[in-house]
Amino acid sequence: MSDDAILRVEGVAKTYAGGVTALSPVDLAIRRGEIFALLGPNGAGKTTLISIICGIVTPSAGTITVAGHDAIRDYKAARRAIGLVPQELSTDSFESVWATVNFSRRLFGLGPNPAYIEQILRDLSLWDKRKARIMELSGGMKRRVLIAKALAHEPQILFLDEPTAGVDVALRRDMWKLVHRLRENGATIILTTHYIEEAEEMADRVGVINRGRLLLVEEKDALMKKLGRRELALALAEPLGALPAGLEQWHLALEDEGRTLRYVFDAQAEHTGIPSLLRALSDRGIAFTDLETSRSSLEDIFVDLVGEKA
Predict the structure, then answer these.
(1) Residue-level pLDDT at 303
(2) What does pTM read for this prediction?
């Protein structure tokens, strides 16, 4: 694992009473100062992993080191290094924004620092709302308050669990800008999401998790190349019993009892191979009645990964 890791997760797993495995053994190192996106569908194990790291759920196995502290033996010091922004919005608080954020700071035993709290609220566009009661705020503003609370005790690592779930596109983009700004201020950020564009916009690296298994961890750009994959499906005029000779270079698949010819290509490549494929089919007298192209989805990648690593 990397020497500059601020967080190390080694062999961490969770099996509940009754034998249900929520998380298979995970090994992961998060670099200091990076934005790491944990990507997966709902129920994949994202929140379970974060909850274990943050000390909310007890692991069945494994070790966690946070900023040099063992998260089990030295829980308080490890937790002190972490700020957690949960999915759930608190909507019933009668306290003001200022009081709420200051209280979060005191929970970690820190003394008052009005200048620091003011800077957080200004960074989050909450300064004008500092006297407003939480219950009076919009959903987007409440989510910003959750981030302010998580930052109040000056953590080194910020966890954002589905930070833009249920918010509109405009607010989502504001949140993306905010995350970049937090990183510029020195924070290490780990976010969970099922929005592929969120990982694409924000992350330096991406981990893909599904059914409790961490399937891969890659640099964002490498994963996005996989997401650049496209598929061309040709509906054939006459079904084929087998692929004709001379078409091997395209790695075609014959489906639907010979009625559909499928070609997978990289849309970002300079030469997709489609024009030459269509010419080769025409030369062999293979006609088609329809064609459509589609971009591989995140779900497609999950299916591929689960198939490869099952």
Answers:
(1) 65
(2) 0.75
